[in-house]
Request: fold
Amino acid sequence: MILDLHGFGPALAAGTLVTIQLALFALAIGLVLGLLGALAKTSSHKPLQWLGGTYSTLVRGVPELLWVLLIYFGTVQGLAALGEFLGVGSLELTPFAAGSIALGLCFGAYATEVFRGAILAIPKGHREAGMALGMSKGRILWKLILPQMWRIALPGLGNLFMILMKDTALVSVIGLEEVMRRSQIAVTASKEPFTFYMVAAFIYLGLTVIAMIGMHFLEKRASRGFVRSV
Amino acid sequence: MNWEVIYKYLPKLLEGAQLTLELVAIAVVAGLILALPMGIARASKHWYVRALPYGYIFFFRGTPLLVQLFLVYYGLAQFDAVRQGPLWPYLRDPYWCAIITMTLHTAAYIAEILRGAIQAVPPGEIEAARALGMSRAQAMLYIILPRAARIGLPAYSNEVILMLKASALASTITLLELTGMSRTIIARTYLPVEIFFAAGVFYLVIAFVLVQAFKQLERWLRVDACQGR
Reply:
């Protein structure tokens, strides 16, 4: 079979770039949310625990597609009103912004659990040692907990990132011109749906494989000096 | 928040929820049946037996469900052979396309769960079965699979919840399940926040009920008693 892309190759490549950008943006938002969620859930304050718990349960129980739609269409009125109020005209979220917020929100909810597990896996003695040395709470977190947490959380985060990468396809529903949307446009023009969706599938497969290889190296680097148990 | 609108469209949303449940139920049950031979093959000692299901699983886990749905629903129509084939009445129908795709998709994940579960069965128990004179097939049927079912059940319940959320994608191929129904209602009422909120609550309730049901099932099957910790 000779693959004829009808001149849509560059468009698909541009779409791939948008997909990667979207995944990385959502990852950044999700990591921050996940870390905050995990800190809230493991804190000693009841309201914070409740907040973290509600966030992760609520977001994980609702489909990602619904979050994408809700954040894109649900914020139109509110943002327009805010724009009026600030006197800068009508504000609205671009599909890219709405998509990265929605996917980041979902990633964060799952990452909350991964980070929480990692925080709990760090021996209590390390924290106590920090306190005995007179370190402040923030310093203990920054210098003791976080550096050790990464190693434990990394495999879980890697799995979540693969899921996130595939979920970026959902943002095509609100019109962001990533791989999936570009393929749809190509299909409309060429009337060859199977060819173009198969190309899209292989682009996603390629991205997944690259992410897998990247994770392998990150995990190798993170586990320097540790003997692998089992 | 306009509660009256939610109340007014509640019957429609319930209708959507019913279709969602139907899609998920068929997909996870059919997926489990399809996954059984694949999971067993994946746990095989021979590489050539492992290779084929691995390729299948690699493809279905490595690509988004949305792409797979579009491949089946829009993609297959590209071939005249399919359009003139005996299966065309089914492959033209979004309902069957959604069921076929979701089943194939979830089967890949369930097969991996099964492989993990089969490999987690303590080797001593398999050896004991063989020492009692059971054939390989008997050991598989009476010892390994019942044991693997209990080991894999928690992961399977996770997969069911994931499929519940993935079923929202069926709305992109024009099916009026919970998300599709919400979008139709919103097109009529222009109230996205209220309707999506209501749909979200529906999903949360369904997920909650499913989690509780699986907890009960784990109790019946005495999953914790089999962990041997």
